[in-house]
Amino acid sequence: MIRKAYVDGRWGQVHIRDTGGSGAPLLLLHQSPLSGAMFDPALPLLAAAGIRAIAVDTAGFGMSDPPPAPASIPEHGDALVRVLDALGLEAPAILGHHTGAMIAASFATQHPHRVVRLVLNGVPALTAAERAHFATFRFSALQPEADGSHLLAAWNQRLRASPGWTHLDAMHKHVVEMLAKNQTYWWGFTAALSHDMDPDLAAIRCPTLVFTNTGEDLYESSKRIAGEHPDWRFAALDGGTHDIVDEQPEAWAKVVADFVKG
Is the distance from CB of 27 to CB of 93 less than 8 angstroms? Predict the structure, then answer.
C-alpha cells in the first residue's frame, strides 16, 4: 500500500507518496509541471524490488504548498533538507526527472553528505541552442475562458512538448495536473530555463547514474553529460517520451532499483 502524507517543509506542507518498508530509501523528484503522481506506475514495482520509494510533490506542485514567489532551483534543492529531516532520512538515494534532476543535482552539491546515490533521469544541461528551443514553448498562466478554450490550449501545449507521444491516459493525467495549477504551473519551467546546472554536475561526488530513453527530448543532452563524466553509469531505454514511467514502468523501475541497491 502506498501511503500519502504531509511533512512540514520550508514553505508549508509537503505532500509525499511513501511505499514504506525497510528497504533502501529512494526520494523521487518529478518533472515540471507535474507531481509525485508521475511515479505512480513504478512505485509498487520499486517496493517489490526492496526499495522504500518516496515520491515528493515539489513546493507549489501537486498537493504541496507553494513558496510565496517563484523559487530557484538551488532554493528548491536546499528545501529538501527539511523534507529529509521530517522523514528521518539521513542520506537516501535521490532520483530526479528533468526539472527534478536539476533539483537533485543542486541538493547533492549543497548537501553532499545527505545523498548516497544519485539518478539523473533526463539531464537538462542545455546548450544555448537547446535553451532557445525550449524557450519557444508557452510557459505562462492559463486564464480560464468562458468557452473553455483554455482547456484545449493546455492540451495543445503539452502535445507540442511531447513529440512521439502514444499514451493517451498519461497525456490526459498530466494535462489535468497542469490545469490544476493553471496560474503557477510555469514556475518550474522558468526556474529550469534560468539555471545552469553544469557547476552542480562538476561538483557531484556520490555514485551517479545518468538515465534516459532514446525517444525523450533530453536524450542527446543526457548522453552528452554521461560522456563528460566517464566515472558515472549510463543507461538508456529504447523509445518512449518524457512520459517513460507511464510507457515502460517495469523496465524503468528495474534500472532504477538495480542502481539504488548497488
Answer: yes
For residue 88, what are the β-bridge partners?
A: none
Confidence of residue 11 (pLDDT cuts 50, 70, 90): very high
pLDDT at residue number 135: 80
Spatial CB neighbours of 8, under 8 Å, sequence gap ≥ 6: 14, 82, 86
Percent of the chain with pLDDT over 70: 100
Alpha-helix residue ranges (DSSP H) falling in 136-214:
149-160, 168-180, 187-193, 198-203
State the virtual CA torsion across 16, 21, 27, 32 in degrees, nearest 10.
Answer: -40
Backbone φ/ψ region at 159: left (φ over 0), alpha (ψ -120 to 50), beta: alpha
Antiparallel, parallel or unpaired: β 3-9 and 117-121: unpaired
Q: Is the pTM of this model over 0.85?
A: yes
Alpha-carbon span 195 to 190, nearest angstrom: 9
